[in-house]
Design a protein that fits this description.
The chain has about 425 residues and is α/β, with parallel strands linked by helices. The chain is built from seven helices and 27 strands. Strands 1-19-21-22-18-14-17 form a seven-stranded mixed beta sheet, sandwiched between helices. Strands 8-5-7-6-10-9 form a six-stranded mixed beta sheet, with no helix packed on it. Strands 23-25-24-26-27 form a five-stranded mixed barrel. Helix 1 packs across helix 6 and helix 3 runs parallel beside helix 6. The protein is elongated. Bound molecules: adenosine monophosphate and magnesium ion (MG). Adenosine monophosphate binds next to helix 3. Magnesium ion binds next to loops.
Length: about 425
């Protein structure tokens, strides 16, 4: 597609995703694997559980012995030993015998059920070795026994490549003897703020200058997406400075994000620089805020030029970059969840682009999801985004102007991870 043509959001996302791939595999410790995508199947080195064991404290018995036990004719068995967790009962339970057993202890040979203490009568003894105990009901085969290999057999795949390791998964892998996990490397992402007016937040103000806030927000977005952000030096609006910065960053980073200098002003250089140093794939996307979204490759490194206006940059990241950084980490490339909600109040739509409104989503008293767009939708603001929990989407076109109160519209949730079922 001609990079100077306007792309739909979907075309733009396809374009970006088609130029990134999962990064190489690195090995991390089990605890560091939580939340990461497993890159190779992980195999259990043992059966789980490794042996039949008691699921309750009680008495290990032979089911056949208790077949005729009832309230009227209880069966008594001789306690021939005790087996706490971590020990093994030497020998086999014979007919008429029981072994006192604790939760987690291996079930003695010969036994095929564990009867919990609570329904066993001690017949005046203490229920320990040498005493007799009585049962007034039969036991079912394997009652209160966790069977060897119940969860997984030795050599089976515990967690498959592509799965995300949860906290429970960390526990499962520990039980399977997996102490290190191959995962796709996190992308190192260079963030380059462009603009001769920009100051770091620590510098004193100079006339005509503003603070660079974008690179901070983008660094936070990258970190939240699992990437490793690096805020590089502010680059003034000079073509050769920008070219140098991008060329250097392309050597050391997996992905480059710039903000500012993205439109057609006299001092906007991201497009010519990417075109000059590499390949330019995209410059315009049918979205608002932020139609000036630039994407290309320099020396094999994807370069994304976001607009300078904070909300435009932020929306660009959410809609077009986040999924790419996730794909590089091996996540299956689904976007953040969308929900349908009722628009509160009429909303003018004179601009035919797809509009992303910063908005707050909540349920009304009837439990219906409602979305209230922030009053001020200026693309220069961060604070409205900070208070928003979604981007409410008004589709392309102006057939509906205004979009009436109560219309069901899609909302992109900003505070919910990909894959969450709502
Ligand atoms: P530009 O895309 O360079 O035309 O910038 C659009 C607007 O965003 C201008 O008002 C810039 O001053 C502002 N801007 C650009 N970069 C940043 C930044 N890093 N932090 C905050 N505002 C910025
Ligand atoms: Mg600028």
């Amino acid at each position: 597609m001609n990079p100077n043509e306007m792309m739909s959001v979907e075309e733009a996302l396809d374009c970006v995703l088609s130029h990134v791939a999962p990064l190489e595999v690195e090995t991390v410790s089990l605890l560091d694997a939580v939340g990461r995508v497993v890159a190779e199947d992980l195999i259990s080195d043992c059966d789980i559980t490794p042996f039949d064991h008691a699921a309750m404290d009680g008495f290990a018995v032979r089911v056949a012995d208790l077949a005729n036990a009832s309230e009227d004719s209880p069966v008594s068995l001789q306690v021939v030993g005790e087996v706490p967790a971590g020990s093994v009962f030497n020998g086999e339970i014979g007919f008429g015998e029981a072994v006192r057993i604790m939760t987690g202890a291996p079930v003695p040979d010969g036994a095929d059920a564990v009867v919990k203490y609570e329904i066993v009568d001690y017949l005046g003894g203490d229920g320990r070795q040498g005493s007799a105990v009585s049962f007034s009901q039969p036991a079912a085969p394997f009652e209160n026994i966790r069977a060897k290999g119940e969860e997984i057999a030795q050599g089976e795949v515990a967690i498959h490549a592509g799965e995300v390791v949860s906290a429970a998964g960390v526990g499962f892998l520990a039980s399977c003897g997996v102490t290190t996990v191959p995962v796709h490397r996190r992308p190192r992402v260079a963030i380059i703020p462009i603009g001769s007016e920009l100051l770091t937040p620590k510098e004193p103000f100079r006339p005509g200058c503003i603070r660079d806030s974008n690179s901070y927000a983008m660094a936070a977005c990258v970190a939240q997406t699992g990437g490793i952000p690096a805020q590089l030096m502010i680059v003034p609006d000079k073509e050769e400075c920008l070219a140098r910065s991008i060329k250097l960053a392309a050597e050391d980073y997996d992905f480059i994000i710039t903000t500012g200098g993205a439109s057609n002003g006299d001092y906007d250089f991201i497009k010519p620089v990417v075109e000059d140093l590499g390949e330019l794939y995209m410059t315009l996307v049918n979205m608002r805020p932020g139609k000036a979204q630039t994407f290309g490759m320099v020396d094999g490194t994807p370069v994304f030029g976001l607009p300078g206006n904070p909300a435009a940059a932020y929306c660009g990241f959410e809609v077009l970059i986040r999924q790419a950084l996730r794909k590089m980490q091996g996540y299956s490339s689904v976007g953040r969840p969308l929900v349908k909600a009722r628009l509160v109040g009429d909303r003018k739509k004179r601009d035919p682009r797809r509009i992303y409104l910063r908005a707050s989503l909540s349920r009304n008293e009837e439990g219906v999801l409602c979305v209230v767009p922030a009053k001020n939708q200026s693309s220069g603001l961060f604070s409205t985004l900070h208070r928003a929990n979604c981007l409410a989407i008004l589709p392309e076109g102006t057939d509906q102007n205004p979009v009436p109160d109560g219309t069901l519209i899609d909302c992109l949730l900003l505070d919910v991870e990909e894959g969450t079922v709502l």
